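Exercise: predict the structure of this protein bound to NAP.
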Amino acid sequence: MTTTALQHPLPDASPLIYGCMGLGGGWNSQPLSEADIDRAQAAVEAALDIGITRFDHADIYTHGKAEACFGALFKRQPALRQRLRLQSKCGIRFADKQGPGRYDLSAAHIERSVEASLQRLGSERIELLLLHRPDPLLEPAEVAEAFARLRAAGKVGQLGVSNMNAAQMQWLASALDAPLAANQLELSLARLDAIEAGTCFNDTQALQRPGSLAWAGTLEYCQRERIPVQAWGALAQGLYSGRAGADAAPAVTRSAALVRELAEQHATAPESIVLAWLMRHPAGIQPVIGTADPVRIRACGDAARIRLSREDWYALYVAARGQALP
Ligand SMILES: NC(=O)c1ccc[n+]([C@@H]2O[C@H](COP(=O)([O-])OP(=O)(O)OC[C@H]3O[C@@H](n4cnc5c(N)ncnc54)[C@H](OP(=O)(O)O)[C@@H]3O)[C@@H](O)[C@H]2O)c1
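Solution:
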């Protein structure tokens, strides 16, 4: 593996985000290997090739090894750091001697987590810090103080959230002096909750899809407040772009066939259609793609140039939900 190939200009914005959860060699206690770093480099190169400049981490991914991979890459190629935007997350704690698996958005944990992420990343700054999941014990004023200290120290640029609904975002935002910079939600053809919340709320279908009700008004709130929505799990783990086998549910088989048909029409790969479906939503959704396979990463490269028609968008939506709309 050469270490000189990462030579790309830095575009200002990137419609797609690269998700780093699959890097670092697995959720185990094995130390990071050169092969893990080579694999990360190949993924980063492929992501840069298709115009991705934002990279999504979390303190917990592969127990810190995903961030450590980037630290190693920046050592290989110090100039690389200037061409990327880093985001990371904090707030999930695994079971340990102190307690069970839990969420922790206390000021002390947020600050400790950021320090550890910066150390692993070998970076002085994370451009965007996301609060990974809502913590019932969250106190907005405490989060605001922690963020103000981290921002004043130049360690964090902006604050955003993940997996929070509109009410939780409003509650948190009430204590902040800067707007939330993102909400990262699970959103894909396989995980439609945030969209379903706006379509089947007044119908008995809502009873069959209770998960969606928690998300009522979330996409609308993000649009009104101009908070970018990031979609995690955007490729639906490949379910509609080649992974589904003969035993897949009928809705998955039908949707995957439609994705293939649309890919042919648009002369592109199925991955780009799966992402274009998300990007057609007026919330300006930024898919976070988690494949580490350079071929699959490059297959996502047409997503931003494809605008699905209203009819094709609905055809895929209805196929994926497996039931006509109310
Ligand atoms: N905020 C949160 O709570 C949260 C939670 C989870 C994830 N995330 C972020 O979102 C990113 C993406 O999430 P994700 O990885 O769950 O979603 P994803 O992009 O939908 O799926 C990626 C996974 O699917 C596999 N895959 C994709 N296409 C495939 C195909 N055609 N055949 C076989 N396997 C295929 C990939 O394997 P290969 O690598 O082999 O292609 C990879 O394991 C993560 O990296 C992370 O940054 C955030």
